[in-house]
Amino acid sequence: GDMVHPYIRRRQGLETVEFPSDELAEVLGRTLGVPLFQEQAMRIAIVAAGFTAEEADRLRRSLATFRRTGTIGSFRERFIGGMTARGYQRDFAERCFSQIEGFGEYGFPESHAASFALLVYASAWLKRHHPAAFACALLNSQPMGFYAPAQIVRDAREPREWFRGVEVRPVCINASYWDCTLEPTARGLALRLGFRLVKGLREEDGHWISAARGNGYPDLEALQRRAGISRAAITKLASADAFGAPGAAAGLPRRAALWEARALTPDKPLPLFPDGEGLAEPAPALPVPSLSEEVVQDYRAMRLSLRAHPVGLLRGRLKGDRTSAEIAGTPDGTRLAATGLVITRQRPGTASGVIFVTLEDETGVVNVIVWPKVYERFRRAVIGGRLLRVSGKLQREGPVSHLIAWGIEDLSPLLDRLGQPDGAGGAAETRRPAPPRARHPREQAKRLFPSRDFH
Question: CA 64, 66, 69, 72: dihedral to nearest 10 degrees?
Answer without folding.
Answer: 20
